[in-house]
DNA sequence: TTCAATACAATTTTT
DNA sequence: TTGTATTGAA
């Protein structure tokens, strides 16, 4: 198949510019992903490159996966040798291979934001730095930003004496992290850059290995990433970067769209190709987007154009308050869906802050509209998942103190701060990390040498019990498959029992943990040790931001940030008010420096350009924020849009608004006082939520797809369960409880062997069985997990 | 050590 | 208003 077929001339040019540096400036909806995949296909099919000579960097794992599948459809040849991934994933791989050059162990774990903050807090406590004056979050931000700029603890120059404390934290944080055999997200980039800079032979190896490099979303690279690209491309200079300054919305994470300019300076012979034809939006929408973004000063002007028709005017609406706003969105969605016979999946509601989603959810539930909330609480950030992962990480890497501290008293074992402190100093006195100290302790316990330790009776007992438990888990990693290890860990630690607190939330947490098995099952082909390492790596770098299932008949609710890269037929942007969009923080900052406001404008630009044919820009007259209700001003960005492109501009009088808000057709419960109305509505939402619970929990198939993914999915009905939204691995059937156990029953467990049932009780959907195993002690097991067989 | 009361702060989040 | 982190009593 001809990979050039169906491409316009600019796209074609970009695909065929094989040699030398190329910069593609790609407007929204201009087919840049298409260009990237077709270019790779061209390199392989027509140019005769081997897949392993190409490195393609994307910004999310999801984008990488998408590119692979598109590519496979395009060329059908083997893509497994291609290097496609995020900077972080590619760097992690390189670092593990080259660990020895940096004095690292290749089994390092990767600390996420949460781990980083915990460690920073600890460091601040150690250094006796006031966490009120210096917020750990801020300190972390400062350190992370420095690292993104390739600044290390040694080269960090405190901008004022206030920052001297931060420098000290930075130094100790890095040192401790090293002792924990861990790297944080930022280190992955920083250390790889260091590797290339300090080790010429290594650098040459990778330069030779990857003569062709492609980078997507180049406007969102930070300095570290920029330098990495520079090192890699220095030899062959076949570097192809794609970006759009106008869509740079992550500067607060260290991204610097000026890298686009920098690229043109550093590679002065770069071909610059503009993709200006928009295939996505109506003329009206494109015009509005251009009108908004043209007010930014720091940008290269572009001439976006489209062959698409003028399309419908942009619908403006001022609601009385956020409830009416939500109500309006819900009724409009129903109207649009009915009139145009479109799937709900063609609709999206976007907002600046996550806090805005709640009222919307309520309205959608009331109207029975199915929705998907992107990026609520991410699966891997859930407490229960992080706890379990911390156990596995500790099993993998005993030096990981952050993980140890996380789990040492979860479930509560009576090991508090004081005992932990004793353990730390005892281990330190032996020259061990606390994790290795525990392993040592477990050995001593076996040899009856606990009296040689300084711990007092209670602490000695509790600590040694935990040490023995940990020793057992650590031993188990060599024998069992990953899923078995996970199961063993859950059983031995009693973690699931700990979660089962009788609340529905507890059940949900248990289900989440169970969901982990569907992931670990995918690693069972590897040898145990490799499986554990791979799994930890993948889970650290994997975020299922939005496994958006395009087919599900549900609308999508998401922040403007997470909307980047997506498109919808109809888009609602709510909260178009000063203080929300642009956000008040940005307004404060822009008093000193206009760039914060420019980024807010880009955010709106991104939002607008997601829409294909219909756009709604909605604001309120009055809104309750942090418990206080205040009148609001329309967003300044609305003024940028010519009135000729819009409709519904009339602002009704305050009186009329109030009447609308309480009008009979909107409120079936009219006649009630405001408070009663609220109560009534709450009851309705509550009932709808309960129905949802029933739909998910009760009866036949226990598809828990809505828990598995990042976001929540609302309004699941019995008849239409959403398909699984975690495409990573196929879901395995959970063992169903088919037996019930009586005290005295003799049972067999595949790890613990033969035992006798002591007691059994039905809890929720499961059965909790207490069994005395011969020589292995008394265990409490979940019947659905344990696969107990009656003898 | 644990749990409940209280204080406090509050964007955005590709890794 | 809401969620989380810290503090103080049992």
Count the helices. How many? 30
Q: In percent, how much strand structure appears in the residues?
A: 5-15%
Regions with pLDDT < 50 over 5+ consecutive residues?
Answer: 662-738
Radius of gyration: 29 Å
Instruction: Going across the biggest sheet, name each strand in turn.
Output: 19-11-16-15-12-14-13-20
Beta-strand segment tally:
25
Helix content: 40-55%
Q: The biggest beta sheet, please?
A: 8 strands, mixed
- Measured between the Cα atoms of the first and last residue, the distance is 62 Å
Average pLDDT, to the nearest integer? 84
Gross morphology is globular
- Structural class call reads alpha/beta
Quick structural gist:
The protein has 791 residues and is an alpha/beta fold. It is 46% helix and 15% strand. The strands form six sheets. The chain has an eight-stranded mixed β-sheet. A six-stranded parallel β-sheet has the order 3-2-6-7-1-8, with helices on both faces.
Describe the SSE topology.
Layout: H1 9-16, E1 22-26, H2 32-45, E2 54-58, H3 61-75, E3 83-86, H4 87-98, E4 109-111, H5 113-126, H6 136-148, H7 164-179, E5 182-184, H8 185-198, H9 200-209, E6 212-215, H10 223-233, E7 238-243, H11 258-266, E8 271-275, E9 277-278, H12 283-293, E10 305-306, E11 314-319, H13 322-340, E12 347-351, H14 357-367, E13 371-373, H15 383-396, H16 401-407, H17 417-429, H18 434-446, H19 457-479, H20 482-493, H21 495-499, H22 504-520, H23 528-541, E14 555-559, E15 568-573, H24 584-592, H25 595-608, E16 611-620, E17 622-625, E18 628-631, H26 636-639, E19 646-647, H27 654-661, H28 674-697, H29 705-708, E20 713-714, E21 746-749, E22 753-763, E23 766-773, E24 777-782, H30 783-786, E25 789-790
Parallel strand pairs: 1-7, 1-8, 2-3, 2-6, 4-5, 6-7, 9-10, 11-16, 11-19, 12-14, 12-15, 13-14, 15-16
Antiparallel strand pairs: 13-20, 17-18, 21-22, 21-25, 22-23, 23-24
Helix pairs in contact: 1-2, 2-3, 4-8, 5-6, 5-7, 8-9, 8-10, 12-25, 13-14, 14-28, 15-16, 15-23, 17-18, 18-19, 19-20, 24-25
The structure holds a DNA duplex (15 and 10 nucleotides).
